[in-house]
Design brief:
2 copies of one chain form a homodimer.
Chain A lengths: L1 E8 L2 E8 L5 H4 L14 E6 L3 H7 L5 E4 L8 H13 L7 E6 L1 H13 L5 E6 L2 H7 L7 E3 L2 E5 L7 E5 L8 H17 L3 H6 L14 H21 L20 H11 L6 H18 L5 H13 L15 H10 L11 E4 L4 E4 L3 H12 L2
Parallel strand pairs in A: 2-9, 3-4, 3-5, 5-6, 6-9
Antiparallel strand pairs in A: 1-2, 7-8, 10-11
Helix pairs in contact in A: 3-4, 5-6, 6-8, 6-10, 9-10, 9-12, 10-11, 10-13
C-alpha cells in the first residue's frame, strides 16, 4: 500500500506519501548517501531521543542530530545544534535535512533547512498523529522565542513528507488523543459533514488507540486534503480571511488554544488538548454571536466530549495569575491584525473569520469571566 | 532629485529609490507610526551605534534597536535582540522593520523581519557604499555562524530600499574604498565596457572620497541595474551557472574573497578589500585557463591597482596557519556543488562560471603556492 497526495504551495511542490514502512535514504533523495565530505551533497538526520531508533532505520551511515524531546526545548539552541551539525557534516547548499519526529522535530528541522545557506533540501517523516495531520504539511516552520510559540519561523514546505504507518505503531494513548483534536478541527473545516460523523466514535483500540492503522488511512487522507487545499489557496497566509477562505481558517481553536498554552506555561498540556479546549471556546463565541447554529454546536461539542477533552471554563487548576496571563496572550496573538486578535468560529458549514469588534469583546468578556 | 528602479525578484516586488534626504516614516510606510501597542501594526527601527542619529531622523517616536557595529557582531545574538525588541514593541505580523546602516545592519534586520511571525514588512536605508551597491538589493539576508559568513539566512527582498545621499556624506575614505570593489565587480559583469572605463579613475575627492555625490548617481544606477537584472533572472540562485547567467555570477571575486576573510579572521579586513583581492585571483585563474583574454585581464588589473587594492599572493602578513585555513575555507565554500567549489572568472565580456576540475585544481595549486 502506498498513496501520494500532491500539493503546490506557492512556489513549492509538496507531496505526502502514505506507506507502511520507514523509507530508506535512497527513496528520499537518490545520491544523498554519498556524503558531504566526500564529494556528495551530504545529508543530516534530525530526531529526538524517542525517535532516534526510527531515524537510524532511514540510514545507519548518516550523521544524526538527537535533540532533547518536547516543546520546552523548541528554541534557538536546538536550531543552532542542527545548523552546526550540518556544517560539521559538510552539507552544501544542495545538502539534505531529514526530520524524523513529532511537531517540534519537524518544525525545527524545517526551519534549520530553510535558513541553512539560505535554503537546503528537506524531507520529513512525522512520527506523531499531530504532526502527521497538521505540522508536517503546509510549510510552516518555526521555534519558540521569549515564551511565544513559533514567534520566529519561515514558510518552507518539505518537498516530500513520508507518513510511515509503522512509525505510529508504538505511540502512547496520550499522543493519539492529542492528534485527534486536529482531525476534529479538519472535520469542522471540511465542507462535508460525513467526516465529522466518522469522528463521533473515538479510536476503539486499547486505551484509545486506533483499532487498526489501515482504518486510519482514509481519515488521514481526508484531513490532509482539507488542509492542503486551504494552504494551496493562500500559502503565505495573506488573505484577511474576512472575504472567506484563507489560511487563517486553520487557526480554528488555536487563538484560544495558544493563549491557554501560554497561560499554563508551554509544554504543560499537549497542543491537541489546548486546541480541543480552544474549539469549545470558539463554539461559545460562535453561538453567542449567532454564527454557529445550535445543531452544529451540539454536534461538535458531542465529538469533543466523546474523546474526553477538557472543555470547561475556566480551565481547571489554573493559578491566581491565570486569567491575566490568558487575556494578555490572547491580545498578543500572532495573527492579530491592526493590533487586534481575530477569531475563527464554526459556521453552518465550515468556519468563518470574525474580526475584533465591541460585540466580540463583550461576548469574550462574559464567556471568559463566567465561573 | 529622486529616481526609482523597480525589480521583481521572484514573488517579491523590490524597488530602489535614490534621493537626497533620509526618508521620514510616513514616506516609508503610511500608517506605521500608529504603534503596535495602540492598535497600529507597529514599527521598529534597527541601526548600529554609528547610524543611530540617522535612524532617529526617520522617526523620533519609534522604538530603536541599536546594535554594536561591525561584522564580528553579526551573529544570532543580534538577531535575537531585534526579535525581542519587536515583540516588546508589540509589532504584529503586519508590523514593519526598518534597517538603517551598512551591510551587517541591513542583513540582520532583513533576516529578523523574514522570520518574525514568519515574515513582516521590511524597508532598508543603506548607509555605506558597499550596502548601497550590493547588500541592500537582492533579497539575501543572513548572519554569521560558527565563523562562517552568512551560514544562516533567507531570501527576503525589501519592498523598498531608499538610498539617501546625505547618509553617505560623512563616510570615511576606508568605506568608499571598500564599496568601490563591488562597483568594479558590477562593471566587470556588465556587458558594456564603458562602465569599467569610468572606474579607471578612482574617486577624486579628499582621501579618495567622491568629489560630488551627484556624480556618483549614474554609477550607482548602473551597478544596481546590473545586479537587479541578474537577480531577477535567478532570484533564489537555482541556476547552476554553467549554462550561462544565474545569480552565481555575482560571486565573482567572492569565492576567493570569502576564503581570505575566513583565513584572516572575520572583520580583519573590509569585505570590499577581500573582494578586490579575490577579483585578482579570479583573473589569475581565468588567465591560466585561457578564459580571460590578456587585454581584458590587463584592463581589470589596472582598475584594481588604480584604487590601491592589495592584490598580492600570498596575502601579506598571513601567519603560519594561513595557507591551511585559506584552503579549507575555499573547499568549504557555501556555493559548492556536489562537494566542490565553483569559480567565476572574467570572460571576453562579462564573466563565466567554471566548475571544479583537475585542470582547475592544478591551476589553483600553482597559483596559491607561488611565493
Amino acid at each position: 500500500m502506498s498513496k501520494e497526495l500532491r500539493f503546490q504551495l506557492g512556489d513549492y511542490p509538496s507531496s505526502v506519501i502514505i506507506q507502511e514502512n520507514i523509507p530508506r535514504l535512497e527513496e528520499l533523495y537518490p545520491g544523498a548517501g554519498e556524503g558531504g565530505k566526500d564529494g556528495g551533497p551530504g545529508a543530516l538526520l534530525v530526531c529526538d531521543e524517542n525517535t532516534a531508533p526510527l531515524a537510524r532505520r532511514v540510514s545507519g551511515d548518516l550523521p544524526l542530530t538527537t535533540l532533547p524531546p518536547g516543546e520546552e526545548h523548541k528554541g534557538w539552541k536546538a536550531v543552532e545544534t542542527i545548523l552546526r551539525d550540518a556544517r560539521r557534516g559538510g552539507l552544501g547548499r544542495d545538502g539534505l535535512f531529514i526530520g524524523v519526529g513529532g511537531g517540534a522535530v519537524c518544525d525545527l528541522t524545517a526551519f534549520a533547512a530553510s535558513i541553512y545557506m539560505r535554503g537546503a533540501a528537506l524531507r520529513l517523516i512525522p512520527t506523531t498523529l499531530l504532526c502527521v495531520v497538521d505540522a508536517a504539511l503546509g510549510g510552516k516552520t518555526g521555534f519558540d522565542l521569549g515564551g511565544i510559540k513559533n514567534l520566529a519561523g519561515t514558510f518552507y514546505p518539505a518537498e516530500r513528507i513520508v507518513i510511515a504507518l509503522e512509525a505510529l505503531e508504538t505511540l502512547p494513548p496520550r499522543e493519539w488523543k492529542s492528534g485527534a483534536a486536529e482531525l476534529i478541527k479538519a472535520a469542522v473545516l471540511d465542507g462535508d459533514a460525513a467526516f465529522l460523523e466518522r469522528l463521533q466514535r473515538p479510536f476503539t483500540g486499547p486505551g484509545g488507540t486506533p483499532s487498526s492503522l489501515e482504518a486510519l488511512v482514509p481519515l488521514l487522507e481526508r484531513a490532509l486534503t482539507v488542509k492542503g487545499r486551504i494552504v494551496e489557496a493562500d500559502p503565505r497566509e495573506q488573505f484577511d480571511g474576512e472575504t472567506g477562505g484563507g489560511r487563517i481558517l486553520l487557526n480554528l481553536g488555536h487563538t484560544f488554544g495558544h493563549a491557554l498554552e501560554a497561560a499554563l506555561g508551554l509544554g504543560t498540556i499537549s497542543h491537541g488538548e489546548a486546541v480541543a479546549w480552544g474549539l469549545a471556546r470558539s463554539l461559545d463565541l460562535g453561538a453567542a454571536l449567532g454564527i454557529t447554529p445550535p445543531g452544529r454546536e451540539t454536534a461538535i461539542r458531542e465529538v469533543l466530549e466523546a474523546w474526553g477533552y477538557e472543555t470547561a471554563v475556566p480551565y481547571p487548576g489554573g493559578d491566581a495569575g491565570f486569567d491575566r496571563r490568558f487575556r494578555e496572550a490572547l491580545e498578543n496573538d500572532k495573527k492579530k491584525k491592526a493590533g487586534k486578535p481575530r477569531f475563527v468560529v464554526p459556521g453552518a458549514r465550515g468556519a468563518r473569520v470574525v474580526p475584533w469588534s465591541l460585540e466580540v469583546e463583550a461576548c469574550l468578556y462574559s464567556l471568559l469571566s463566567k465561573r
